[in-house]
Specification:
homotetramer, three-stranded antiparallel β-sheet, 9 strands, hydrolase (chains A, B, C, D)
Chain lengths: 410, 410, 410, 410
């Protein structure tokens, strides 16, 4: 039995200094195995192959979000926004748990093993289970997480164009990758937050911090999240897991942990059963990577080669373009691959054609509002002194091809 | 086949900015699977249970060392120290590979699975294997690593009281843990290096940087490396692996990866065979942690409980003291444990009595010398204006006990 | 006589760490009274009234520029650009001295006391004087400063859209003001520089650093350089000095230092005589501010009130607008002022109508070029993935009015 | 008349980000000319001759202290220490104004122009004047400043071995000089503060932060505050001002500002009259430096040469020693100076013999107490694990001589 003595109440964070855990409920949620699992899931998946410092975890991000949320609530209360202790606690829990449903290499997983079930859905399932365990104390947090609470600004703090989630992950990812271009001023932004008519707004003088936030986010997308080596590594992982699933369906033996075995050999229903959820709660980066390491010596050549390439960071070549590649060019590459002995089955796994896109500011899904001293509330796109931010609302699409490095077109 | 195009020549580092890989030999060493393995071995073992930001890897540390070494060589050459390109390359390779023999949770491993074989020994084995593969190009690096090269200062840059290894890891560990007290000024120290009579020295005006280095190192030991929660987690891991080895010896089945299986079920000889080395090169944090996760449901209660405790961060209680605990007190705890149902077999694994110690500056093994304008060369202990540094040469020992949290002495 | 012993060769800089002075010529230039004067001229004029940390001097900026220039030359030489030691020295001197002609509160001065003589002109005069003193050793530096040297990229390093001047001052001003939005990555930018066909270019992968540079520059303009309180303080200083000059012309006695007296009471010719230059070399912030302090008790009410307002940071009110203010509105304010006892003579000094403007990237005067692996050289405006940077080429103009705080329009 | 609109309520600080001015009373104190004067007094006097970044002002330090004090009070209140709003405000005002009596180049002044009147005395005079103006609202602040308030820990926050003053100035001076060795963790220290039996204590786990604070303070003394070039510059300034005062006493004309004239020509009584105080409130760095610049062309050779040397940073040579210099050696230098034409009158100003000393932790004047979980309260000297801190309680004295650079002893 664990006793309440010796409880760690302060967490060291290289970014914010000390993070304080405000009360026993939140402490117990952090101690819960469902949450502790996030210690073993990296925030940025395969990106550490490109940025070797990027090994920070979803655990750290979640705790960082809770810290910023406490700060945001304090700022808003100091400005006269009435927020009850119950609401404060709920919004802190909502942000703490918002990513609890992320699996290992989340996006890769969602496109292979738990096909069709988003991490948001799983987060909600975990929160509901925890709510049972904690006797209903998470109900308001769940409402806020689902965006259903009547006080809209609390939902917006958890999920919107300028939510606490983004404020932490942009800053944190910039810090750990060393890509200074994305270092936004989260604490300055939070100091400028306010609430008008139940709408989260940024005070007038925060306009340049918002601009830097949007520009910084865009730069992080191009330099980090959509970095071509990171993208190809993820594609290779998707293909690898798809191959593993295909072999499992055929009944082949794949050495791996029990939790991963469950997801490889069972068709996962769209609505998780409790057993599926519990098994998912034991699945993390370590199951995936240690299996891949063992698969290097598997008899299936495709599985084996993809495994070796990922482990030894021997990635496919990537070609990037502003326009779609024409069919002729693609055929040329495929023919060349055939000539060099790659079968059409191989091509399913070692040739990729896809797109990446980046929209720094999506003014349709939700907006960032500036609040002027004269009472006006204006969308940042209009408030900004020129076309600059408006330009950033246009999504940019890039096309890419991946194929083995040896393939040379004369 | 990998082609030389698209080679990453610059590595992002949150601490130093850009790290440049100076030439193809070093590039190829970094790309080698032996070295890429270090991407999957954390620098600080279980410390991330205490400092959640401390997930940086031995890969990153090794590359950071190479960067600082390049800087040190440039500084020395600018001061007129003659260093050939061959020597520069060799000392960079020596520091790059100095930790290549570290296994996962190195210290835990050395006390359980590869009992008696130090990571330095294994590093040397890897370097010799690589030297064969790279046709003798690593010979001088190996001499320097072994401290056998005739130009002593090059050996000292790789291993001494003020070596590049410490300059990187203190700074890096401080950065990732967020423990600002240990943030030493590596780049200032390097700027002050010089060589006199083949001895690495620090110029006079660097005296305060050296003092800060020694004091910072001591603070990092107490706050981080010897943090009681980290120490107990490592002890628990040692006990867990010892239990696994014990069960393996008895012939029990332990689900785990092939590489870990090899080391659990085979008695490892003091001098690794090539097969042992190759298997070791496939062993990393992922083998250990994913096995532990599966062992939570193992039939052996001791193995299962230790596994669950480590995975869910439910650690033993630690009691610290400046003096040794008296036998009576220890008996009391053990009796209490017996009363609560822990058997004497259990006690081998769930009760720990041990010491930790810290010596900030060891003036016997080697010294840090200051170089004065008038030509004098003085040990920092004597140069420092008072007893301060001398005080730090005295090793400090602390005693500790670990036992289950539920155990209360009336 | 000063002897060459004990020469400080390393300068501490909070931004770059240590700055090394590379040789005796540069050391002697830094020691020269003409250059030492820059220690007494703040880089940002009246901005410390808004940003209290902004007390850094033109001395520090100039030395920082020299440091970055050394780094830039090293980077270019490592990439194979041939640069002789003579050229390296010259371009370092050119950047070191590029601001030596700045007077105290430069822009204010140029609009009042040394009307019509730009600081660039005066810098050139100083450089020519120093060239005589140092027996022609500055000739090449002067050519580069004047943009006349045949190797264009050296001139561009000193003066262009992406010159070393901007790289230092944006970073430095961001550091000292605490406005993180302007913290550009000077060292990353420099690492990406190259020279193609005698044109300074930025390598392809530096595109996001360039974008951040342009965006950061724009943010610094709006948040710092054109901050309304800073702008009004400067306007008030212009008016104050104009009043002093007016009174001097009338023959009134104005207590002040000898150097300031010279410029107040003498009509300064467009081409400085040697005497004017020598007197200018003794004029700095201390002459101006200590005079203003004494003028608080001057009989002239306008001079006295403006002096008191500046010293005690009691600034005029500023009103900002995207459009020009209409005449009717302006008349209203002036009438109100008249009603409250301000004469039309007063209005010349206490009412201001003016504009400020900001153009983040001026693609007409000169361009920033990106250099692609395939050999293409492309203007950043076209290279950027969208309208974002193009938007920033449009100058933005804001109109403002200043008048006493007490003036209220019903 | 100034209206309350447009009040700046947030101050940018490069160290802490935003500093909030909590209420109108504090805002009005900051706006007061007595306090605004601190904008024109550098925190570190002549140190910018050594560390060119060190131009930060006493204004900025005072405001930074107020910020840290607000944080400290919040931390203590969160730990259950009862502090009324009135007390909070008073302790913030006490720290805000604690340095308001500093004159320009304070220590130099105290040894020349306002001989015998300490800045603490003058601070108290200003606070009493302001208390009249603000109708008694500063009474409690004054009690705390004088150490007379019944709740001792509030006095200790303002003045003790670990007061808010030191926490700000060590951090700030380290930041602006770039001497990273002194970068203490003010915010971590504050997080560890607590109050037991009306005594300010640091919680047990803050022990290493306290150690770093003491060691950092010592390093800042040797590297910055007692840097030999800074020390000699200050000595020269003392001698220069003493010479000016001597000439003034003789009735010679010394061009200077009115405020400086008052202090040069009048014998200042130990207890300032109101007129003296008001004149002092108009005296700042600008009066001193602009006078010195004009004195370069004064007829008195001693005044003129000292002025020229300070302005052009042509300092006396310094010789440092752990022991006192013997009389014979001193005579040798003086004789040599005589031979080279320096008269005995000159020697009073151009030859200095003095000592500097440094005591990192003074355990007699007051102590830093650690607070253990078991309730123990222990002096840091005893709590520290070894002799390290005890060593730092011993004062270290160094002897130095200053004389013209040209003087060479064969």
């Amino acid at each position: 039995m664990k006793t309440p003595t010796n409880k760690v109440k302060i967490i060291n964070d290289p970014i914010y200094g000390f993070i304080t855990i405000p009360n026993k409920l939140i402490f117990d949620l952090i101690e819960h195995p469902y949450f502790q699992r996030l210690r073993r899931i990296t925030q940025m998946g395969m990106s550490n192959l490109v940025y070797p410092g990027a090994h920070h975890t979803r655990f750290h991000h979640a705790v960082g979000c809770m810290h910023l949320m406490q700060k945001a609530i304090t700022v808003l209360k100091n400005k006269g926004v009435v927020i009850s202790d119950h609401e404060k606690n709920a919004v802190c829990i909502a942000i703490l748990l918002h990513d609890i449903g992320h699996g290992p290499y989340s996006h890769a997983l969602e496109h292979s093993i738990v096909d069709g079930v988003s991490h948001e859905t799983i987060s909600l399932l975990f929160m509901k289970e925890l709510n049972k365990e904690f006797k209903g104390k998470l109900s308001l947090a769940i409402d806020i997480f689902e965006g259903k609470y009547e006080r809209k600004f609390l939902n917006q703090l958890v999920s919107s164009q300028l939510d606490i989630d983004r404020m932490d992950y942009l800053k944190r990812d910039s810090f750990y990758t060393g890509v200074a271009e994305g270092n936004i001023s989260s604490e300055r932004l939070i100091d400028m937050l306010n609430v008008v008519n139940d709408q989260l707004v940024v005070e007038e003088k925060g306009i340049y911090s918002v601009e830097k936030f949007i520009v910084g986010r865009r730069l992080m997308y191009w330099q980090v999240y959509l970095h071509k080596a990171g993208v190809v590594a993820e594609k290779m992982l998707v293909n690898l897991l798809a191959r593993a699933k295909y072999l499992a369906n055929k009944g082949e033996v794949l050495p791996c942990s029990k939790a991963l075995h469950y997801f490889l050999y069972k068709e996962v229903e769209e609505t998780f059963t409790l057993q599926t959820l519990k098994t998912f709660s034991r699945l993390d980066d370590y199951d995936i990577l240690s299996a891949i390491k063992d698969w290097i010596s598997h008899d299936d050549k495709i599985l084996s080669l993809l495994s070796e390439m990922i482990i030894n960071r021997n990635l496919l070549k990537v070609q990037l373009s502003n326009e779609a590649f024409d069919d002729e060019y693609i055929s040329k590459i495929k023919n060349k691959m055939n000539q060099e002995g790659w079968t059409s089955e191989d091509l399913k796994y070692f040739f990729v054609e896809d797109t990446i896109s980046n929209q720094a500011y999506n003014d349709i899904s939700s907006k960032i509002y500036l609040y002027y001293k004269n009472g006006d509330i204006v969308d940042i796109v209009e408030a900004s002194d020129q076309l600059n931010i408006q330009a950033l609302t246009k999504p940019v699409v890039k096309h890419f091809l991946c194929y083995p490095k040896g393939i040379k077109l004369a």
